[in-house]
Task: inverse folding
C-alpha cells in the first residue's frame, strides 16, 4: 500500500506546538476535565473509581450509542458504531466498501483523507472540484457527469472543511438522488454538523437515505478532542455488520473509560452545542472584521463549522506566509497549499476568544506589513 503524505497533518504536527497563538484550531475550545465535570453536574469521578478496565463493546457502549442515536431522526442505536475519531470512522468505511479498481468520486479541496485514503486502497478517484466563485459548493451537473454505473462511492463533507460552506437540504437531496440512481453509496463526513453559524439547519444524510453512511467526531462541536472518539451512522445494518467484521482486525473496541465519559457528555449535548456556537460566533466576528476591512483579502464567509478559507492578493506563497507569521508573530495557521489551493489560508476559529482575538490582531499586523512592502 502506497500512502501519500497527509499534508495538513504533517504541517500541523511540525509547527503547531511552536505557536503562542493558534488560529488553526478547528476543535472548539476543548474542555478541561474540570469544566466538563462541572457541566455534567454529578460526581462522575466517584463512579469511575469502580469502573472495571476490561474490553468494551465492539459497537460502543450501549448507553453512548443511545445518546448518539438521539441526534438523528430515523436512526436506532444498533445503526451506530463508535470509533476512534471520525478519521477512524472514515477509514473503516473505505476499508469495508472499496476494492482495487473501484471508482470513487470525491470533492476537492477537502480533508485529504477523503480522497487519498481511497487511492491508497487502489481505488480510482475522480475529483469533483469545488470553486470559490460557486461558493465552494458541489456543481450538481458536473457531479452527475462524473457518477456512473462504475461508481462505488461518492464522498462529500458537510459542513465543509476547509471552507465552512454548507450544502443545503435541497442540494443534499439532489446529491442523494444522483447516488441512488447510480446504485452507488454516499459517504458524508459530518464532523462539523450542528455548528450552524447563521441559524440554518440541514439534516444528516443518514436521515435522508439508506444509501448514505455518515461519520462524526467528538472533537469539533463537542470539544472533547482528547477522548479520540467518533462514530459511523447508517440505516444499512448489513454494512454495520460488515464494518464490524473488519474492525475485529484493527481495534476490537474503544476505551471503556473514555466511552463512559462520552456517554455522560452526550446527556448534555445541547448545552455543549450552545457553548460551541457562542465561542464560534464571537471569533467569527473578529475574523470578519479583519478580512472585510482589507482590500487584498477576499472570502466566502463560512456558514457552518469552525473553519474559514480566505484568499489573499499578495506576492507570497501560502506556506512561506504561514511560516513567517509563526516566526515573526508567534501565530499559527494552515497554508492553503496543504489543501492544494494556493493564495489561501485555512483559519480555524475554535480557540478560546482571548487567544483567537490576539492571534487575529497579529495576523492583521503581519499582512499589512507585507502589503505595504508590495506597493
Result:
Amino acid at each position: 500500500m502506497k500512502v501519500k503524505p497527509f499534508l495538513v497533518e504533517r504541517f500541523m504536527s511540525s509547527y503547531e506546538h511552536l505557536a503562542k497563538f493558534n488560529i488553526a484550531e478547528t476543535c472548539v475550545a476543548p474542555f478541561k476535565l474540570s469544566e466538563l465535570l462541572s457541566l455534567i453536574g454529578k460526581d462522575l469521578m466517584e463512579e469511575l473509581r469502580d469502573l472495571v478496565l476490561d474490553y468494551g463493546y465492539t459497537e460502543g457502549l450501549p448507553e453512548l450509542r443511545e445518546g448518539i442515536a438521539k441526534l438523528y431522526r430515523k436512526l436506532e442505536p444498533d445503526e451506530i458504531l463508535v470509533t476512534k475519531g471520525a478519521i477512524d470512522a472514515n477509514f473503516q468505511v473505505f476499508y469495508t466498501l472499496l476494492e482495487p479498481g473501484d471508482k470513487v468520486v470525491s470533492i476537492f479541496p477537502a480533508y485529504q483523507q477523503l480522497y487519498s485514503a481511497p487511492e491508497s486502497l487502489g481505488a480510482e478517484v475522480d475529483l469533483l472540484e469545488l470553486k470559490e466563485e460557486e461558493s465552494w459548493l458541489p456543481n450538481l451537473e458536473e457531479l452527475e457527469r462524473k457518477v456512473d454505473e462504475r461508481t462505488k462511492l461518492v464522498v462529500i463533507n458537510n459542513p465543509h472543511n476547509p471552507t465552512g460552506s454548507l450544502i443545503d437540504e435541497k442540494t443534499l437531496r439532489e446529491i442523494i438522488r444522483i447516488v441512488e440512481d447510480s446504485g452507488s453509496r454516499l459517504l458524508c463526513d459530518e464532523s462539523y454538523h450542528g455548528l450552524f453559524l447563521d441559524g440554518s439547519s440541514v439534516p444528516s444524510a443518514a436521515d435522508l437515505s439508506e444509501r448514505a453512511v455518515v461519520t462524526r467526531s467528538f472533537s469539533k462541536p463537542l470539544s472533547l478532542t482528547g477522548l479520540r472518539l467518533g462514530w459511523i451512522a447508517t440505516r444499512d445494518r448489513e454494512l454495520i455488520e460488515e464494518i464490524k467484521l473488519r474492525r475485529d482486525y484493527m481495534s476490537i473496541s474503544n476505551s471503556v473509560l473514555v466511552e463512559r465519559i462520552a456517554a455522560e457528555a452526550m446527556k448534555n449535548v445541547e448545552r455543549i452545542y450552545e457553548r460551541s456556537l457562542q465561542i464560534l460566533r464571537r471569533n467569527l466576528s473578529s475574523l470578519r472584521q479583519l478580512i472585510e476591512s482589507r482590500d487584498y483579502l477576499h472570502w466566502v464567509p463560512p456558514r457552518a463549522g469552525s473553519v474559514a478559507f480566505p484568499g489573499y492578493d499578495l506576492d507570497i506563497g501560502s506556506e512561506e506566509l504561514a511560516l513567517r507569521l509563526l516566526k515573526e508573530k508567534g501565530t499559527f495557521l494552515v497554508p492553503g497549499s496543504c489543501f492544494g489551493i494556493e493564495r489561501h489560508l485555512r483559519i480555524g476559529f475554535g480557540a478560546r476568544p482571548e487567544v483567537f482575538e490576539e492571534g487575529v490582531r497579529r495576523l492583521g499586523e503581519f499582512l499589512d506589513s507585507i502589503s505595504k512592502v508590495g506597493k
Remarks:
- The CA atoms of residues 67 and 266 lie 6 Å apart.
- The longest helix spans residues 269-292.
- DSSP finds 14 helices and 15 strands in the chain.
